[in-house]
Amino acid sequence: MAERELQGTGATPRSGLGTVVWYGQDIELPDAADVTVDEAAERDRFADAVSTARAELETEREATAERVGEEEAAVFDAHIQFLEDPTIEDAVETEIAEGTPAPNAVDSAFGAHIEQFEGMDGRMAERADDLRDVRDRLLRLLTDGDRVELADLPEGSVVLAERLTPSDTAQLDPDTVAGFATVTGGRTSHAAIFARSLALPAVVGVGDDLDSVEAGTDVVVDGDAGTLLVGPDESERAAAATDSGAGVVEEQVETTDGRGIEVAANVGRPVELQPAADRGADGIGLYRTEFLFLDREAPPSEDEQYEAIREALDTFPEGRVVVRTLDIGGDKRIPYLDLPEEANPFLGERGIRRSLGPDSDLFVTQLRALLRAAADGEGDLAVMVPLVASVEELEDALDALDDAAADLDDAGVEYERPEVGVMVETPSAVFVAEELAARVDFLSIGTNDLTQYVMAADRESEHVSDLHDPTYPGVVRAIHRTVEAAHAHDAWVGMCGEMAGNPDLTELLVGLGLDELSMSAVTIPDVKAAVSETTYSTASERAEDARTAATRSAVANSQQ
Predict the structure, then answer these.
(1) Residue 161's closest CA among 178, 135, 138, 180?
(2) Average pLDDT, stretch 101-130?
(3) How far is 352 from 327, CA to CA, in rounded Å?
(4) 444 pairs with which residues across the strands?
(5) How are beta strands 15-23 and 218-222 bridged, if at all?
(6) pLDDT for res 496
(7) Residue 133 in contact with residue 113, Cβ under 8 Å?
(8) pLDDT of 531
(9) Euclidean distance between CA atoms 176 and 182, whole angstroms
């Protein structure tokens, strides 16, 4: 047994054994009282640092998109926005004008905003870490500080830190680093998201007890149990050392009693398609088309969207590609679109609400591209509509698809109607699932938002993170009800939320009757292995026990 066990929040269902390396940025600010400030020179120094920082961020964004994924890389867009925030820039220049050296002015200006964000909840609180990242980058450049290259750590290192920023985590090499643990952070923090994408063992939010673990100590990072084992014994070392995950299986898998389950990947950009295929994805269960709209001054054209979808279909000629229509709003913002500032954007103008409203022109263009792509080449295309809360919204979306088809027909352009489905993310969609399923070919459950709305727990808030668990009975019953409704109308049903990528929950989901599971590509081999080890008849019995359970612990007990 380990000498000590520290508890945190597991970020990745992986374990790693290694030696502790503490990481932290040590930046020394000049003593402002000892510096005679040349205002023009300090302004120039600040401007040069901003320019260099932007170049670094753009380079890191591109590298992260290729290595980790487009969704994860999007955080660097926010960093660039903070870097060029006129409010912060004005505050820095005001301090310089008052005789403060540029590094101290940056520290002060960013510090005020960091403190403000720290007092907020959810996604807004995470902005504090983004601001720290930008601040520290500028301070390093202004003080000629050395940058610690996390990519060059010794093999078998376990990184411990107060916190890891996105640019820190993006440097970690899974072939070298055995894992990491942080004092702060939650499952939805940037560090945790990057860890899952890299299949890197990680435990976040351990608390101040982590400070007592000395550099050079052997530890086991158990990202499944959410523990850091300090001074592990031989059996714990052996278990961690052999946890390399399942091997890639290219063909579709089935349960021990012959029920086939499609295991697909969630992607955001064409660059993510081949890595998904390399991990054994049967197809794409969620193509997030909003990422085609980023990093540009105007929306993509119909032809650009057509080409992107065709590339996905060509990558999976024997599989199915499920494309979600534009889903912006909430935590997804596109600079050139007129998105409202809302007190609670997750309950505001997002998803299909915008596609049927202010973004209707974009919606028509996208539907035309999808209809054209369905007619060409190999692969089966399916289209799903996000955040549907009513039958009326679905019918309006279907009318828009019909109108787009009629336009193409009148123009003599070849097209084909793809499978059409609905994302089930709202309690309302669960309650009218039968009526929705009667009108479409499939339903796809987005458990991240569904759990948030069923449990009335902000998915980005650490204060209610315990409630954001899809194994609560209310969520399990919502999933079951959706599956039953879909199958009653001969529609297939998938899941593309984070729950689908947790191999510990695969048996439950198979037992509940899911036909398809879609996830981050990195977890596909583990989920395929879990499906292959599941007996559907047994899983169905256990799922019935889970469905009738009254508590989360009873749901967990039903699966043992």
Answers:
(1) 180
(2) 78
(3) 7
(4) 423, 494
(5) antiparallel
(6) 93
(7) no
(8) 97
(9) 18
| Size (the chain), residues | 560
User: What are phi and psi for residue 237, nearest 5 degrees?
Assistant: -65, -45
Among candidate residues 79, 113, 468, 496, the one labeled active-site is 496
For residue 453, give both structure tokens.
């709305």
What does the pLDDT average to over 189-202? Answer: 81
Distance CA 231, CA 240 (A): 13
Q: Which of these, 401, 480, 496, 478, lies nearest to 439 by C-alpha position? A: 401
CA–CA gap between residue 123 and residue 458 (Å, rounded): 9
The residue type found at 522 is V
Single out the residue of 154, 168, 130, 180 nearest to residue 24, CA to CA: 168
Nearest to 509 by CA among 529, 484, 532, 531: 531
pLDDT tens figures, 125-177:
667 778 888 998 899 889 887 666 777 788 999 999 888 877 788 788 888 89
Q: What share of the chain is helix, strand, coil (3-state, %, to 5)?
A: 50, 15, 35
Taking the C-alpha atoms of residue 194 and residue 45, their distance in angstroms, rounded to an integer, is 33
Cα gap 476→94, rounded to integer Å = 55
Helix (H) or strand (E) holding 286: strand 284-288
Under 8 Å between Cβ of 511 and 535? no
Burial per residue of 73-84, b for 16 or more beta-carbon CB atoms within 10 angstroms, e otherwise: bbbbebbeebbe
- Per annotation, catalytic residue among 79, 113, 190, 480: 190
Handedness of CA 58, 63, 66, 69 (dihedral sign): negative
468 counts as catalytic: no
Name the pairing type of β-strands 253-254 and 260-267.
antiparallel
- The model's confidence at residue 400, banded by pLDDT at 50, 70 and 90, is very high
Task: Name 18's bridge partners.
Answer: 219
What torsion, rounded to 10 degrees, do the Cα atoms 470, 292, 196, 535 define? Answer: 50
Active site residue 496: yes
